[in-house]
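Q: My collaborator sent me two sequences in one message, no labels, and asked for predicted structures for both. Can we handle them in order? The first one she listed is below.
A: Yes, handling them in the order given. First sequence, followed by its structure tokens:
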Amino acid sequence: MRVAAAPGWLVVLSVSACAHPSSSERPGATGCSAPGTLCWDFEEGRLPEGWTPFRDEFSGQLLVDDTRARGGRYALHASQLVGGREGEQGGPKKTVRFELPKDFGPVLWGRVHVYVTPARPASHAGLFNARYPRPGSQDTAFEALDWYEVATYQEKYMAIWHPPEPPGFPEWVQVSDTPLVLGRWACVEWLFDGANGDAPQAAEPRVWLDGVELQWPRRFVFADPPTQTPPMREKARDFTVLEAGVFLYQGLSTPTDWWLDDLAVGPRRVGCE
């Protein structure tokens, strides 16, 4: 939502052929052993092949280091991000990208443990997104893909469905009433269901915090110029690319650190443990 040094490398724990889910219901956790699940615990202290640096704007850096980890020694660290003016477009962005295996499928569950300090940003701060080609399109360029996003906004958790970026809107925005957890590890899970059974549109994103599903008291369309017409959430054939790290669409005046550890995605729920 657009309103008011090279990274180190990751480690893959479990990679296997991707299975196609038959339902968007929330099943029991499968962990990293389930077919099609991709997990990264950062314990080699570097990114594996497949993850590549992507966004790099304003001050700070994205690296794998041993300054804080949920388990083991290493985590992905967005260090001392700062820059731009709050309430104005343009902010620090430090991310990496990963190309998913062919035929991953239209349903993507995810999980990451996040630690943030010292303050909750008011600006839109993305943490993770997954993208897919538009229906009937063979264009797999990053800027041609529809996408789901997990983020925070106005100090609370947020989830968005976007059309291709740029411009990335009109977008369907859901803002929770749950403040971003500070000063401890929090488990964030999500479900991006681009198939959504026989429904005419892809499903709205769903997000859980420490096992409890978030509610969205604020739902709205963001567009420039403004519109009240919700976008058509185009259905997915296959998710093709991931982006992880921290990307702020407005300024950040307080130098802030994020650590991301035990990142995982798969066609079924992975779970927090």
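Q: And the one she listed second?
A: Here it is, processed independently of the first:
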Amino acid sequence: MPHWLSLMIDALPSLLWACLVFTVPLTLLSFAFGLAVGFVAAITRLFAPAPFAAFVRFYVWIIRGTPLLVQLFLIFYGLPSVGIVLDAFPAALIGFTLNVGAYTSEIIRAVLVSVPKGQWEAAYSIGMTWAQAMRRTILPQATRVAVPPLSNTFISLVKDTSLAAAITVPELFRAGQRIVATSYEPLILYVEVALIYLVVSSVLSSLQARVEKRFSRYGGFIEAGS
């Protein structure tokens, strides 16, 4: 058996373990919490009083205008200067959540605005409250439009979690770095890490295509936004 193949086989269990125990949970939790933050931020920006909307705009401006790696460093290495000490995983989770929240808020805001005003008027005309109109009329239509960009954000997040290695989270890329430090075979092992990310991203892309196809059977993305 070639040396490079033997090395990849030996490293695979450790890499997959790091992926399943750290990369996958970090991705899922960050996206779930970030989506919740994004939804609240989008609703606040569209419907809340001006001071609250201004605060959300400032939050989105800061997050979108600074690198994610810098944000992680500020949370993990910077906050201890003011007495706030976080473990690596919670620090990464907070950083990714805030980042995802800012970007998804813009997506959600855009798709909510894309729903015609006549839909609101129709809902109000049959006696719905604002909350009922949002839940029963607006969100179902907006969801169809939001699925593709939100899915892309999720897939990008899987790869972005590799930045957590910089703050010592033992996720997939960090596990690869540790093996490289003992084997002195960076090319082979980093290629293996890249292949694992590629496989995960490809699976998620396939699932995204299926979800989009299923939604298209019930009105389609274009129709929902028209």
